[in-house]
Design brief:
Elements: H1 9-12, E1 18-20, H2 25-35, E2 39-43, E3 49-54, H3 55-59, H4 65-69, H5 79-87, H6 94-99, E4 106-107, E5 110-111, H7 117-127, E6 131-135, E7 141-146, H8 147-157, H9 163-170
Helix pairs in contact: 7-8, 8-9
Length: about 180
């Protein structure tokens, strides 16, 4: 059972799906859809987080730069053309999309393991990000705290709990790693 007074970053950490710079845009879209994510963590080869891409930025993956600059032109595209734009994501990596600024990844900010949910919320609001890393002072990475988990903690502290809210606090998006 969750104790509202003990909800600190380490209590709210969870494992979430991540992508690499080599992940295609289409694969990234699938991961977001499958797990109902608000953003994606981009990791290095060792699995350590490098940056976060908010979900709204991921929508920009399919848009040519002229449509991002002038969204009113989007109405001239029919469904076949839209599908062609989406198919191109099979040949384009997240790294390429970040490099040519079709999507803007932000350095993943972090909080300390004993930071409170108010400190977590403040850091997320400041960075306008749907998730935040939890790192110890020595740099040890513990995982991320998602917006939905922080909001579940806030709802619980406010007395607005339900079976779904409790499940959101108790169950990670990914199962624990297999023992080696």
């Amino acid at each position: 059972m969750w104790q509202t007074q003990a909800m600190i970053a380490l209590d709210l950490v969870e494992r979430v799906p991540t992508v690499h710079r080599e992940t295609t845009g289409a694969e990234a879209a699938r991961v977001v859809a499958e797990y109902r994510l608000n953003g994606l963590v981009v990791t290095d080869a060792a699995g350590l987080p490098l940056s976060v891409i908010p979900g709204s930025q991921l929508l920009g993956m399919i848009l040519p730069s002229y449509l991002r600059d002038e969204p009113n032109l989007a109405h001239v595209f029919d469904e076949d053309t839209a599908e062609e734009l989406c198919q191109k994501l099979n040949d384009t990596t997240i790294g390429e999309l970040m490099d040519d600024e079709r999507i803007h990844a932000s350095t993943l900010p972090s909080v300390l393991p004993d930071d409170t949910m108010v400190e977590i919320a403040a850091a997320m609001v400041k960075g306008r990000l749907p998730l935040i890393a939890v790192r110890s002072m020595d740099g040890t990475y513990h995982g991320v705290v998602t917006m939905s988990r922080v909001l579940a903690a806030i709802a619980t502290a406010a007395g607005q709990t339900s079976d779904l809210v409790r499940r959101r606090l108790e169950k990670d998006l990914l199962p624990p790693p297999e023992p080696r």
